[in-house]
Structures are given as C-alpha cells and as structure tokens.
Amino acid sequence: MGYITIAEYDALTDTTITADHGAVYVQGLIDAVSELVDVYCMGTKFEPTTLTEERNESYVQGKSAKLVINLQWAPLISVTTIAYRIQNTDTTLTNITDADLNKVQSIIYLQWYGPLWRRSDPWVTVTTYMAGHAAIPDNVKHATALLVQEWVEADDRAAGGSSSILVGYRLGNYAEQYAARVIDAQIGNIGLGTSRSMLASQLLGKYRRPGVAHAHVPIP
Alpha carbon 199 to chain centroid distance? Predict the structure, then answer.
C-alpha cells in the first residue's frame, strides 16, 4: 500500500498528472516510490506492523540487572512477548508489563530475574512487538509526492515507450543501482541530485536509523 492516495498526490503537487496519465499509472508509481522510501528509511515502520524478532546482541546491564533489547524496527508501539533462548529452549518472561520502553529508539529495558547472563554468553532474545506510526507522517507523504512527481516527469522526458527500466536512485548520500528490470513505466534514474530529491531526503532524514541492517526491497 502506498504512503499517499492519488487525491493526496494531486493536492500536494497541484498538478493534473492523474488526469493526464490515468489513476492506474499514478497508483503504480506511488506504490513503487513508497517501497523506495522504506529502503531509504531503514529501520523505521510507517504503518503499524507486528513483528517477531530474534536478537543475539541483547545483554544484561551489570549494576542495574536490566535486560537490554535493541529492536530493529522503530518507533515501538507495544511489546507482546519476550523470551530468552538457551540451547534451543525458549523461556518466556512474565514481567514484561514492568518493562521500560524507549519507543523512539525501540529499546526495551526489563528487570532481569533469570540466571547469570554474561555478554559473552550465546543467548538469544525472541521478542514479538508492534512498531510503526499511528498515521503516515506528513513529511513522508510530502517526500513521496515529490519523488512520484520526479518519476512522472522523467517518464515524460523519455521516448514514450510502453516499458523500460529503473536503473537506480539517490536520496541524500544513499544510492542504489539496479540491473535492468522491466516495469510498467519508463523512468531511468530518479533522485539524482534534483531539488525535489534533495528536499525529499531532508524530509525523510529524521526517520533513518544509521547502523540498522536492512534488506533491499526489489522494485516490482
């Protein structure tokens, strides 16, 4: 699902692109750009999503005896279950209602009553939680509209063929290049240093979490 509706796109860009190109075309670009936004904003969920995650970087702080779990996705909404795994056996913790949650950074602090846990121990935490925003942030909607508009204009500058490839994109200092991949619109490169893509990267910058591993989302 895209991060803006066609009506929001028309209002944000003040254009007649939908009327000129058709709703199916514009919706396809909105969906594809929303996936690019997901890749760029690594570690952030914009729609509420339930996740189950195994982490082997969890540890117990010394003096406070608190279990610290750094989750991959933010912002944190709620925690359903936490278990720790030793030698392939999961033990579910029963005191998660007492957990301190850093919802912005998606970190859990929970008083530890289990066995001695050293940072060198090969233990794993298994956490089921919900992350995301209650509503798509306005900055994300605006950035999505800007990039869709750039994509449409790149298509209009092309030869007008019925199919072509997305070869790459750049937002801020982040870039990805793709092998030739046929899609429904002829667009070439988007976000290559234009004023729109620079503004989009500024609008999305606050949602990036450097250092968070992410998987590439392929263009459909």
Answer: 18
